[in-house]
Amino acid sequence: MSKCSIGIAALLGVLAVSASDSWAQEQTVWKFNNLSRIGGLTPKVEGSPTLMDSPVGKAVQFNGADTALFFPSRPLVGAKTFTIEAIFRPEGGDFQQRWMHIAETDPKTGLDANPGGTADPNPRFMFEIRVVKDQWYLDAFVNSKAGSKALAFPEKLHPVGPWYAVEQTYDGKTYRSYVNGVLEGEGDVAFTPHGPGHMMVGVRMNHVNYFKGSVAEARFTTRALRPSEFLKVPQ
Asked: Residue 138 CB: number of other CB atoms within 10 A?
């Protein structure tokens, strides 16, 4: 091999490593395969969630009554664009279920959410579901100091029981939600990056609307992924 060829090969290798490093820095994967260390954080375990099998390994199962995981930090602080994904399984239960709440802590009050109800000014990302008999539909929500947007479509129902991949993305202009990579809906919204805070899985931060179901994996990316790049449930 010529010196020129060796030099080009070395350069391509450096570029590949640099691209890999950049990807690692912009994306974090959380595996819910235990109750002691998830996403590099030690959660506070509330109630007695259990471990179960999923298509991607172990998952944490929540009972819809008093089980949740509270995390002492949160992803996507300072991100101007984002993708939030999860592999989860709805298992029936109450109509309103707020199962992932990523909040900015109010620096004045020290609160992550309004102590009562489901409306508060705190910047946040939410994954929620609404259960209608043996079906459910997705409710994704973003709020920041610049604006807010809810994406919920009661006509887009999915059966309770199977595992699903759900996604919400923001590309700097348009907020979108997906189920299994299929667009549920979209809308433009102004967005200001979030500050530090906390995250709750299994219920809203103020313990309103518990989730009956399981969560296997979540992934957080500081750019809007294309559907071809999303997490997928193995068939």
From this structure: 24
pTM over cut 0.70: yes
Q: What are phi and psi of 150, to 5 degrees?
A: -110, 135
Q: Distance (Å, rounded) from C-alpha 22 to C-alpha 230? A: 18
Give the DSSP per-residue string, 89-143.
EE----SEEEEEEEEE--TTT--SS-SSSS--SS-EEEEEEEEETTEEEEEEEEE
H or E stretch covering 231: none
Tell me which residue of 138, 140, 126, 123 sits closest to 174, measured CA to CA: 140
Please give the Cα distance from 155 to 52 (Å, whole number): 31
The rounded Cα 217 to chain-centroid distance in angstroms is: 9
Within 10 angstroms of residue 162's Cβ, the number of other Cβ atoms is: 11
Q: Report the C-alpha gap between 147 and 222 in whole angstroms.
A: 19
Q: Any residues with CB less than 8 A from the CB of 11 and at least 6 apart, and which?
A: none
pLDDT digits (tens, 9 = 90+) for 157-177: 999 999 999 999 999 999 999
Contacts of 34 (CB under 8 A, 6+ apart): 51, 58
Contact 159/133 with Cβ under 8 angstroms? Answer: no
Q: What token pair was written down for 133?
A: 């008999």
Q: Of 120, 123, 125, 131, whose CA–CA distance to 201 is shortest?
A: 125
Stretch (H or E) spanning 3: helix 3-26
Other Cβ atoms within 10 Å of 87 Cβ, number: 25
Cα–Cα dist 127/38, whole Å: 18
Residue segments in the chain with a per-residue pLDDT below the cut of 70: 1-25
